[in-house]
Specification:
There is one protein chain. This protein folds into 2 domains: about 375 residues, TIM Barrel (Alpha-Beta Barrel); about 110 residues, no CATH class. Helix content is about 30%, strand content about 20%. The strands form 5 sheets. Strands 1, 2, 3, 4, 5, 18, 21, 22 and 23 form a 9-stranded mixed sheet that branches. The chain has a 6-stranded parallel sheet with strand order 9-10-11-12-13-17.
């Protein structure tokens, strides 16, 4: 008698083998048998005509805070993700005692667009060390598995206090940081992360704590991973414009990876130079994995979250009001004309990172699932004889402010996206889930990848596409017996309809601990999701089960 049998689906092993029609029997959270299963089971899922694959793995998330109030990790589980790695880019909630929470959040709130109010309300800060944070995450009810990396900005703030944002570290402080990180990894953190990216600023416009660190400080900490013989080194990379500076950065990174012997991983972000950096590290004898996206980056926005206009003074004053009052103001012709004028010719300043860029009305598209060819607000303005800003206002008023728009942050040529996906040392990992909650929406990477690059374009076979979302990331992050479906593996399973798998339209949900909004997106064609053998969702319906565990490095994971 098995706990559960998934019957008659086409089963993929996550290792790239072609799918075969088989039953998958699950007992005690593990895959017990794959083949023709004749024994009875307490629960049966009919998967005829469906694909059965290992649950997807997302290696680049910022769920560190969200996982405390949202056991389903927002849209991630809706898109078939059963394991997520958090603590990327140096941004973690530990180490650091509650008195230091302010300093720690300072590095996160703007750089990752995570709400300070939501963190303060939703996270019971009961740790000082990273080990205690791991225990806190382990104790949380979770629908999916999570793994954590230890982040440099928190490490620096916990060791140096306020000086973390201004000063180079003294030798004894570097030693202390190295020890803190080594202990975190010995306790099960997957690795150490940092940011060297100019996109990562505090609200005051200063660099986040990790960016004050010298390369020697980074090297000292990463060489601690080397001495321990464990842990991955993740960083938000330097992206200097000057070729000499890029060469200098590449040389430093390659030398550190080779000397420490630890794998280094970073987002490629559609830049050939960053793909070259992956090759450079490998040529120098190190190990590197580039994290690649499956399309360009884009902002998604609307009245219920943020607008490009929000930083202009008149808009700011209107947008501070409740939506019902905004509606009234927008119907006042005089005020409306001034808002339109300000939006058309106001001084926007510069957007950094994933912040919503200066509006380019030819490139702002109206998201409308009923219109297969999306139109720009500029085009609609010409058609209706009004300003593109008025198009945005009118469409929003007409939909009760539900209307969302999209604008590219960086357009990456399909050739470059493909070069990233095909590179032998890359992994699909760029969702940033848990962060940028009013700016971007990339939790749907797995279903977008399968619908676009596998089903529609046929660039990758189903077996290869599934391997890229499962077996490959499991190997990169050392997730033992996950990302594969075979007897003895953990029963993290996604059942989906290959003819429809994809994404629904984006929406806004006001479900943060302080009632604040976040962007959300559901999937299409995901029939069932199992984590550690338990059904966490059947179609769009969540079962309420929370079988997810904390994945600790080097430890049996249940
Ligand atoms: Zn990140």
């Amino acid at each position: 008698m098995f706990d559960l049998v998934i019957r008659g689906g086409t089963v993929f092993d996550g290792r790239g083998s072609a799918g075969t029609v088989a039953d998958v029997a699950i007992a005690d959270g593990m895959v017990a048998e794959i083949g023709r299963v004749t024994d009875r089971a307490r629960q049966t899922i009919d998967a005829a005509g469906r694909f059965v694959a290992p649950g997807f793995i997302d290696g680049h998330t910022h769920l560190d805070a969200q996982i405390f109030w949202d056991p389903y990790a927002g849209s991630l589980t809706e898109h078939g993700v059963t394991s997520a790695v958090m603590g990327n880019c140096g941004f973690t909630l530990a180490p650091g005692a509650q008195e230091q929470a302010d300093l720690i959040i300072r590095s996160i709130e703007r750089a990752e667009d995570m709400s300070r109010e939501a963190i303060q309300r939703g996270v019971p800060w009961r740790w000082t060390t990273f080990e205690q944070y791991l225990d806190a995450v382990e104790a949380l009810p979770k629908a999916l598995n999570v793994a954590a990396q230890c982040g440099h900005s928190a490490v620096r703030a916990s060791v140096m206090g306020e000086r973390a944002f201004t000063d180079p570290a003294a030798d004894d402080e570097i030693r202390a940081m190295r020890q803190v990180v080594t202990r975190a990894i010995a306790a099960g953190a997957l690795g150490f992360s940092t940011s060297r990216s100019k996109a990562h600023l505090t609200k005051a416009g200063d660099p986040v704590a990790s960016r004050i660190a010298s390369w020697d400080e980074v090297s000292a900490i990463v060489s601690g991973l080397g001495d321990l013989g464990a842990g991955i080194f993740q960083l938000a990379p330097e992206r200097p414009a000057e070729p000499e500076q890029m060469a200098d950065y590449q040389a430093r990174l390659s030398a550190l990876a080779a000397a420490s012997g630890r794998p280094v991983t970073f987002m490629v972000g559609g830049q050939q130079e960053q793909l070259d950096a992956v090759d450079g590290v490998i040529a120098a004898g190190g190990a590197a994995i580039g994290q690649v996206h499956v399309r360009g980056f884009e902002n998604v926005f609307g009245f219920r979250t943020s607008l490009p206009f929000d930083r202009l003074p008149l808009w700011k004053s209107v947008r501070a009001l409740p939506l019902a009052q905004q509606r009234e103001r927008l119907r006042d012709p005089g005020l409306r004309a001034r808002l339109v004028a300000e939006a058309e010719s106001g001084r926007y300043g510069q957007a950094v990172g994933a912040e919503i860029g200066v509006p380019q009305f030819e490139r702002i598209l109206v998201i409308d699932p009923a219109q297969p060819a999306e139109r720009s607000v500029a085009e609609l303005g010409r058609q209706h004889g009004v300003s593109p800003v008025e198009v945005m206002i009118d469409w929003s008023l007409r939909t009760g402010f539900e209307q969302l728009f999209r604008q590219p942050i960086s357009e990456i040529s399909p050739d470059l996206v493909l070069a990233g996906l095909r590179h032998p040392n890359t992994v699909v990992a760029a969702s940033d889930s848990g962060a940028h909650i009013s700016q971007i929406l990339d939790s749907n990477i797995p279903t977008y990848f399968l619908s676009h690059w596998v089903r529609e374009s046929g660039t990758f076979s189903w077996a290869e596409g599934i391997r890229m979302l499962t077996g490959v990331p499991a190997r990169v992050w050392g997730l033992d017996r996950r990302g594969v479906l075979e007897p003895g593996s953990y029963a993290d399973v996604v059942v989906f309809d290959p003819s429809t798998v994809g994404s629904a339209a984006p929406a806004v949900r006001n479900d943060l601990p302080d009632g604040g909004p976040r962007l959300a997106q559901s999937a299409v064609g995901i029939d069932a999701l199992l984590v550690n053998g338990q059904l966490v969702s059947a179609g769009p319906v969540r079962t309420g089960a929370t079988p997810g565990v904390l994945l600790r490095s080097g430890k049996t994971q249940r």
